[in-house]
Design goal:
mainly alpha
């Protein structure tokens, strides 16, 4: 009998491995970051090691099963088709980012700044961050590249540094949420079993109104600002072609592997003749891009094994019973998915890890509350980005502070994180307005 055919009895103790992970990771992160003043402490803690400890806790539970039987259960969890697909997409996406490089991000920002009035420069920073993060699939990479430009804009204008940096962070989370090559999108779609195109369409209905409202708020704040001339360095728009091809292919619904391979080939054709990088450097970048995904892949493997044991021991049944008591109806089920991944994100400070952890449980909730896979994937990705975009100890915030020269604090930036706040409002409105209708 397969695991899915079994109906284990409720057992709250089976959730202990998740609690162990959260206590260890969040506890050490808070102590090192705020108690001992260790910079980027959350991202210096070896998350793979912490997950191994949590998996060990799962293995020593349920003594009625032999260890070999537990290995079989873990292997079935890791060997799931969606897990293998997710791992392969992570690797190919890493190669794509390695080939195309990140110099195109600056090209987008400088091009937009060159064709718009100076008073709208903060709005341009937001739009540029939206496009770059959607194309690159990484919010941290976008913030790293665009924040120095935001700091330069602030220096020659009447705009505050907090507003400029907050706008870049908001745009970065927009693309992190929607990009076809974002690890959050890959994780959300594969844990819920839906096509990326379908998730994008469901997600876009939430993200677009929030982005338009954010743009309007920024423009209103910018109307009477006295802005000096902004110097625009040289840039090469040819570097945008691979990203545009990936965006078009993803929206058109082409197979994600085909889309990424086309993007990789286009990148090779562009970066070698233009002298952006030599052949050996390109090979090294490809390897570095793939290697950059290794930790995420290992987390995916360990979480899949751990969740397989938790499900077998009745942990998911206990969690579902709690959700049934607290969240009622279609609205409650959808809020349950969102708040579940939000809680995981607060604890892990990593939206991809939060989705990987919450994904199997969210799948069970979706089946219980008749939520479609594309809607569940959209809610997972959206709520994880909402929380990740505002927590003061997340990588996005810490990188933004560092890239701006350390001249600003997280709590100065937080009032200007318009996009994550408006995305939360748009998500709640979407749930309340759409929960009464049956999804196709």
């Amino acid at each position: 009998m397969s695991l899915k055919e079994k109906k284990p009895q409720q057992n709250g103790l089976a959730l202990l491995p998740i609690l162990v992970f959260l206590v260890l990771y969040l506890g050490m992160g808070l102590v090192f970051e705020y108690g001992l003043g260790v910079e980027m402490a959350f991202y210096n803690i070896p998350i793979v090691v912490v997950f191994m400890v949590a998996l060990l806790v799962a293995c020593v539970q349920n003594r009625r099963l032999k260890f070999d039987d537990k290995l079989t259960i873990m292997a079935q969890g890791v060997g799931d088709k969606n897990i293998m697909t997710m791992i392969l997409i992570f690797l190919v996406a890493g190669v794509f980012v390695g080939v195309t490089g990140r110099s195109s991000a600056e090209a987008v920002a400088y091009f937009l700044l060159s064709v718009t009035p100076a008073w709208a420069s903060v709005a341009v920073l937001f739009v540029a961050a939206c496009f770059v993060s959607t194309a690159m699939g990484t919010s941290v990479g976008t913030i790293t590249l665009i924040t120095p430009i935001a700091a330069a804009v602030s220096n020659v204008s009447g705009f505050s540094l907090a507003l400029c940096v907050g706008s870049v962070m908001g745009g970065a989370m927009f693309g992190d949420n929607l990009s076809f090559i974002s690890d959050t999108t890959i994780a959300a779609c594969n844990t819920q079993g839906c096509e990326m195109r379908d998730k994008f369409r469901a997600n876009f209905k939430i993200a677009l109104p929030a982005a338009v409202a954010t743009l309007a708020v920024i423009l209103v704040q910018s109307l009477n600002a006295g802005v000096g001339q902004i110097d625009i360095p040289d840039y090469n728009l040819l570097l945008l072609i691979p990203y545009i091809l990936v965006l078009i292919g993803g929206i058109a619904g082409l197979n994600v592997f085909v889309v990424l391979i086309v993007g990789i080939l286009a990148g090779v054709v562009i970066v070698l003749p233009t002298g952006t990088i030599d052949f050996m450097g390109l090979l090294g970048s490809m390897g570095s891009g793939a290697a950059g995904m290794f930790e995420t892949i290992m987390v995916t493997v360990l979480v899949s094994a751990m969740c397989a044991l938790i499900r077998e021991f009745g942990g998911f049944e206990a969690l579902l019973a709690f959700i049934r008591r607290v969240f009622k109806g279609r609205v409650g089920g959808r809020l349950g998915v969102g708040l579940l991944v939000g809680a995981m994100d607060i604890a892990t400070a990593n939206n991809t890890v939060a989705i990987v952890m919450a994904g199997p449980i969210a799948k069970e909730i979706s089946e219980e509350y008749h939520i479609t896979p594309r809607e569940s994937a959209s809610l997972l990705d959206t709520f994880s980005c909402i929380f990740q975009g505002v927590i003061p100890y997340g990588a996005q915030m810490l990188v933004a502070i560092s890239a701006s020269g350390g001249m600003i604090s997280a709590f100065q930036i937080m009032p200007f994180l318009y996009y994550p706040y408006l995305l939360a409002v748009a998500s709640v409105v979407y749930i309340l307005a759409g929960a009464g209708r049956k999804q196709a």
